[in-house]
Amino acid sequence: MAIKFREVSHVYSQGTPFEKVALNNINLHIEKGQFVGLIGHTGSGKSTLIQHFNGLLKPTSGEITILGQKINDPNTSLREIRQKVGLVFQYPEHQLFEMTIFKDVSFGPENMGLSKDEVDHRVREALSMVGIKEEMYEKSPFELSGGQKRRVAIAGVLAMKPEILVLDEPTAGLDPKGRDEILGQIQMLHESLGITVILVSHSMEDIAKLVDRIIVMHRGSVALDGAPDSVFEHVEQLEKMGLAAPQIMYIMKALREKGLDVPTNILTVEEGAREIAALLKKQK
Amino acid sequence: MLRDITIGQYYPTDSWIHRLDPRVKIVSTFVFIIALFIANRYIGYALTFLFLACIIAISKVPVKFMLKGLKAIFVIILITVALNIFMTPGDTIIWQYKSLRITGEGLYLAGLMALRLIFLIIGSSILTLTTSPIQLTDGIESILKPFKKVGIPAHEIAMMMTIALRFIPILLEETDKIMKAQMARGADFESGGGIVKRAKSLIPLLVPLFISAFRRADELAMAMEARCYRGGENRTRMKQLVIEKRDYVAMAVMIFFTSAMILIRFI
Questions:
Q1: Domain locations along chain B
Q2: pTM to 2 decimals?
């Protein structure tokens, strides 16, 4: 079991007029190796939730177990947990600070107290995983394009070799090409390394394409939880929460209402195209 | 983590004090501070204590918030008290060790000084806790307006203050975010080590913070220009400051309090 939440609540600024309940009695189990999508409207508690995964925030009440270690236990080393749970924040490129790309990525492994050779090895590995070429290693991270900066920042977390990788909207503010590259690399990481990945996103298309489980947050609670097709069945409920199903689902539904015989549980454009093509062939 | 800092933090609630005109509150605070320095006897501070207690009760701000500001100057109070206790010359010697001595006069003065500092902080906290930053700068701009003729750029000063105040919470939030991002990469901001080591550990925080501050400044300047901002000339406001009946009452109370303080000193 990678992550286990038992009746976890989190309240910000407790006892002041700014008090806000961000998480309300969350029960959650995430298995090792799962690829989980986390969606929810702004302010639904997603960001608060993921900061509990590596102990940056502690629950106001309840119990969290990460990779078998209890977060509340004073004997638990938070540094160790933060190394095992790699957390990539929104706009991670804002955390870059070193003179060269190579040095910035080595910040994490160096903090772990690894030998110079090991740091060197991990940095190269992480940078090649995100597709940054060797001739760029000595460049300043501030000279890069937005998408490249973000990949360098993600490499900074990957270099710590986390067992669980949490990404908070890794594609926000990127162009379609940058977005596809990053998502492709995340999928590759999940498949080749077999690590647990938790992806926070606003884009239903991205989520539907990649993950094998979706958790929907609403007002600090888990509203829906299950496989993508079963979650997207609840379109009305999602819309009430200010969310939506992937656009292709709406198209398939509209076609169906027109009397065409197409399935409506389609999640990706490719699948949809295949179904429509098959239908056209049949009609001929 | 950084949420606890209350430099000029506004406590939003609806009270008689909150609704006062900011100009009246700023001038009153100023007068209050002068009155504090007029007093030189405990009886004067007894009156001040009563006065503050009444205002805090009316303002509906929990006393806890009022006292928060004191934590920051606790060391200064301690030093002041220590200096006054040991450095005041006097005849009634209570305790002596070589050239170090405590006199009755010293104790008396140290107490007065400590009270003066405490009341000073609480008095100014009342202003910032009950007046939103925007109101505060509006008030300052309005007070400074007459000095425009002697070359004081009232509007520009107010605008700079507004922007600075506006950015305090944003930068705090940003600091919090960057700290967390670096902590997720194993950075350690809390535990000790030598001064050099601690200063070095701040680089991963300060570099991104400066970059983001400059970026924000750039964006803000651009956004202001895009909306044709060109200084205070001929600008009108949505909310005009108006002196109302309650403001006259407040002024009367302040005049009464100040006269009482002067009377206590000179009789």
A1: 16-131+242-266, 147-226
A2: 0.72
